[in-house]
Amino acid sequence: VQLQASGGGLVQTGGSLGLSCAASGRALSTYHMGWFRQAPGKEREFVARIGWKGIITYYADSVKGRFTISRDNARDNAKSTVFLQMNSLKPEDTAVYYCAADLPRSPWNPKYWGQGTQVTVSS
Question: What DSSP string describes 36-98?
């Protein structure tokens, strides 16, 4: 599975940004996709993830009500794009955001990762 993330950038507190991540590979319908982030000096943390049909979603408590994850799938199950809409952004949301994909295991420690994309929220 290959993942290509895009989006991010610089925004003021209270603003919005969107991230997207395009996945390609086989059997993507069996994979959850999601986002993690890593702030300077901190460990990587889970942000959100979504199942194939978009019915199953999970969010970190810190982003619930502000971030929305969604997914658009190709009919051949070989391509899928996951989106992260981030609203009411706070300086503590500043981090490098990574998209990820893997089977829906618990705990979810994804095998496949995209490159990071920087999100900076200025106060």
Answer: EEE-TTS--EEEEEE-TTS--EEE-TTTTTTEEEEEEE-TTSSEEEEEEEE-S--GGG-EEEE
If pLDDT is split at 50, 70 and 90, which confidence band does 76 have?
Answer: confident
Kindly give, in sequence order, each residue whose CB lies less than 8 Å from that of residue 95, ignoring residues fewer than 6 positions away. Answer: 37, 38, 39, 42, 119
Specify the residue for token string 């979504």.
Answer: 50
pLDDT tens per residue, range 18-34: 999 999 998 888 999 99
Q: Of 100, 103, 6, which Cα lies nearest the Cα of 45?
A: 100
- Count of other CB atoms within 10 angstroms of residue 50: 23
Three-state SS for 103?
coil
